[in-house]
Specification:
Mean pLDDT is about 85; it is low at about 95-105 and about 235-238. The chain is elongated and about 60 Å long. It is built from eleven helices and eleven strands. It starts with a helix and ends in an 11-residue tail after the last helix. A hairpin with a 6-residue loop joins strand 8 (about 175-180) and strand 9. By secondary structure, it is α+β, with helices and mostly antiparallel strands. A three-stranded antiparallel beta sheet has the order 1-3-2. The chain has a two-stranded antiparallel sheet with strand order 4-5. It folds into two domains: about 5-75, Arc Repressor Mutant, subunit A; about 110-225, no CATH class.
Length: about 240
């Protein structure tokens, strides 16, 4: 039970909606002035300062002084990972309270919604769109909770240097869905999702951030990832 006290202390810090709103505004690793965080959370500057001081004392935020202004950012990337994990639990919870409770997540920064590391695979809008194309092009088929790579998908992925048979030998299931908290639509997880992220990073289509789980999408990456499983629609013959 050595770690139980620390877990409860962090949970108590995040239990306050105003503090969690300020933490969420920093989820992309950016540093924001205390006045901006106060406005985002609907607090007076003095009240926000008290909350920010508690978060900093609890090891969740780090203070940076820039002239006369005070900027705050997440103390470590692990703080963002933990907060994202809790957001994912909420997004995937199907039996949410319908009364007296906020049922949607605050809007995340655009960079986090676009592309980010989710566990060990690609998450965000780019990942959601890619997964939908894989399904529409017949590379994958979804059967209730099971996700299967089709013969067509095996062949096409092999052209990308990803071999499903090798992935399946390392895990019970080569591919699975992961609920995306940023828009409540699924993206691709599992060994296949992890392999695709590694491929995109190796090709330079995506770049890791030093401060957070945000992934920077290059212009080449935007074009090339958009081509994957993009079926060419032939005109109808009259």
């Amino acid at each position: 039970m050595e770690y139980a006290p620390s877990i409860s202390q962090v949970a108590m810090l995040l239990a306050d909606p105003k503090r969690s709103a300020m933490i969420w505004a920093l989820i992309d690793g950016s540093a924001r002035p205390s006045e901006e965080l106060a406005s985002l959370a609907g607090l007076t500057p003095s009240s926000a300062s008290a909350h920010l001081a508690r978060l900093a004392a609890g090891g969740l935020l780090k203070l940076e002084s820039r002239g006369r202004k005070r900027y705050f950012k997440l103390a470590t990337p692990q703080v963002g990972t933990a907060v994202e994990a809790m957001a994912s639990v909420w997004a995937g919870h199907t039996d949410r309270p319908s009364e007296g409770c906020v049922t949607s997540l605050p809007t995340a920064p655009p960079s986090m919604r676009r592309a980010r590391v989710c566990h060990d695979h690609l998450g965000g809008q780019v990942a959601v769109e890619l997964f939908q194309r894989l399904l529409d092009a017949g590379w994958m088929e979804q059967h209730d909770q099971r996700l299967d790579v089709t013969a067509k998908g095996v062949q096409q992925l092999a052209r990308q240097g990803i071999y499903i048979q090798a992935l399946a030998s390392h895990r019970d299931q080569a591919a699975c869905t992961c609920r995306d908290w940023s828009n409540s639509r699924p993206h691709l997880g599992g060994a296949l999702g992890s392999s695709l992220l590694k491929l995109f990073l190796q090709l330079g289509w995506l770049r890791l951030s030093d401060e957070s789980r945000v992934l920077h999408l290059t212009q080449v990456g935007l074009r090339e990832i958009g081509k994957i499983a993009q079926e060419v629609q032939l005109p109808d013959v009259i």
